[in-house]
Amino acid sequence: MILGTAGHIDHGKTTLVRALTGVDTDRLPEEKRRGITIDLGFAPLVLEGVGQLGVVDVPGHEAFVRTMVAGATGIDLVLLVVAADSGVMPQTREHLAILSLLGVRSGVVALTKCDLVDAEWLALVEEDVRATLGTSSLAGAAIVPVSSTTGEGLDALRRALADVAATIPERSSDDIFRLPVDRAFTVRGTGTVVTGTVWSGTLARDATVRLFPSDTSARVRGLHVHGHVVDTVRAGDRAAIALVGVELDQVRRGAVLVQSDAWASTRVIRADVSLLPDAAVTLGPRSRVRFHLGTNEVGARLVVRDAPLEPGVTLSARVVLDEPIVVRAGDRFVLRAASPASTLGGGIVTDPLAPLRARPWRLESRDPRTTLAALADEAGAAGVSVRELPVRLGIMPRDVEPLLATVEGWRVGSRFLSVSARDRLTRAARSVLESYHAEHPLEPGAPLQWLRSRLDAPDEVATAILALLTASGDIVATSGVAANAAFAPTLDAAHSALRDAMIAALGSAGIEPPSLDELAASLGATSDGVLELARWLAREGSVVAVEPGRYFARIAVDGLHARMAAGMADGKEYSPGELRDLLGLTRKFLIPFLEYCDREGYTVRVELGRRLVARPSKPSTA
Ligand SMILES: Nc1nc2c(ncn2[C@@H]2O[C@H](COP(=O)(O)OP(=O)(O)OP(=O)(O)O)[C@@H](O)[C@H]2O)c(=O)[nH]1
Ligand SMILES: [Mg+2]
Asked: Is the alpha carbon torsion for 325, 331, 335, 338 positive or negative?
């Protein structure tokens, strides 16, 4: 469990953390010199009845609010610090707003420095604090007066924190692993070490992790929680992770460590965004903002559907990020203005992997079922990646299959398509075939590979569509060719006349037939028409394609085979000259014929010429 501090500069956050934990989290020389917190500080805190919590101490200075956001993200409860001698100040309010935006609902308020004020003043400040908590996510939180100097109230504060901690449900470890990096450094002899709060899942030593945004892989060499070596870290742990195979500059604050292949980086997301009620601006339809999620901060353009976005209002938006980041549906983020630096609002990611020109969704209550259906509709023939669903929908991996079972759609391997996309594709396949048949009435069907390529869908999907149509009996697919079930090649009168003429011409030409082009010219037909008929006749068996553009009458080929069978001895090698004499073919016809015999498996090519390997059988009658 992680506890984060919050509150205005100098109100005593770091001093209180030291009083509670014994750890001085201000470790930078500059922090010592200036007496303020600049970077995040970390310490373990043991609470009776709860166990050990990780404490993240944040800076209160208005110039370091972005650091506070990085620290406050992923905490379970907050210790909001208000100095009794000065009361609610600007960063008290800003931090409170950020905590609300991040969905932090549990916490305790410490009224520090109560040794500096009298009881009457303390009561006034407490009243002011209570009013400020008002409608924030911390409304109703316990307010405990303390003094880090005298130690007064510290026990009560511990008890109040333990009471709140006891109400916080444990995070599920049974989820995909993610850790936003908040610190990275090099340890001599160990290499690169990153620290952060484990947001979800577990990670074990020797595991392979992916690092974003660089999308590199690394091996986990060792794991620590608060200085102790452990075998596994789990959701809610403050972890230090030693990595093999990573340079320090790949893992600065903002990097994210993940494990499942469900994760992908993204530049475009959909989100529900709100402006704080007291935001001093209105955002137009395409505004530049700073986008803070996890420990990451990137520039972004906010594209809202029903512009403009007014203070206090929530709208659905597309967020186009300047750099790729890793986010999950349900993640909360904070939006800030670059200059003057101020917190504008924030929101919740509704689609982490949105298409480039994604239209913002309508604001409505969504659940994973309706979201999945919408995503599948939008994805069309490509479908939604099932692998990515835990990230895309923000659900547990174990909930993916049960969800898919309840949403109408079509599963193809690793994809999930809408029923309408499937129906569109089956219609397209049938109509592509229809036109193919119309154009090629003599062909038994379209080559499957060609048909797949005409479907405008991933190969896996196109193959599945054809399998569906085959299974339903709508199309028939045999030997690499598909046809609509109702189709049968037919010869009309013109075809029949040409066929007869071709048979006659090829028959009389014997073992030295004309090429198809020559045949077309002599018969006054088109080359395509002659080719289609030649293929038809070849399927019938009355001609043989010895070369792509030259067909022999079957009877001529049978005659040549008979001469080979009779004239060639087993095992003996024959030169082209000997074969020419045996077969009575000129060189122009001999070589293509021998190559045909090689393809058919009768002969093999040897150094000298050819050797018989299978005796051509008696003339077939096919
Ligand atoms: N008298 C008194 N002084 C305190 C108490 N707590 C903190 N201080 C003093 O207040 C000053 C600021 O305390 P810090 O703990 O550094 O304040 P902070 O909130 O961490 O400040 P930032 O991290 O810079 O925002 C220091 O000089 C502390 O000694 C307290 O309970 N009583
Ligand atoms: Mg401090």
From this structure: negative
Which atom of ligand 1 is nearest to 148's Cα?
A: 31
Q: How far apart are CA 147 and CA 19, in angstroms?
A: 9
Q: How many helices (H) and strands (E) does the chain have?
A: 18, 32
Q: How far is the C-alpha of 165 from the C-alpha of 76, rounded, in Å?
A: 8
Name the DSSP class of 397. Answer: G
Distances (CA, A) of 414 to 354, 387, 453, 460: 18, 7, 20, 9
Binding pocket residue ranges, ligand 1, CB within 6 Å: 7, 9-15, 36-37, 59-61, 81, 112-113, 115-116, 147-149
**Contact at 8 Å (CB) between 180 and 73?**
yes
Averages of pLDDT over each 10 residues, the chain, 622 residues: 97 97 94 94 94 95 94 95 97 96 96 97 96 91 97 97 94 91 90 94 96 91 93 94 90 92 94 92 91 96 86 93 96 93 95 89 82 94 96 96 95 95 96 93 91 94 96 92 90 90 94 95 93 92 94 95 91 92 93 94 91 75 43
In 3D, which of 530, 510, 507 has the Cα closest to residue 518?
Answer: 530
Residue with tokens 């023939």: 381
CA–centroid distance, 81 to ligand 1, in Å, is 10
Q: Whose CA is nearest to atom 12 of ligand 1?
A: 10
**How many Cβ atoms are within 10 Å of 208's Cβ, its own excluded?**
11
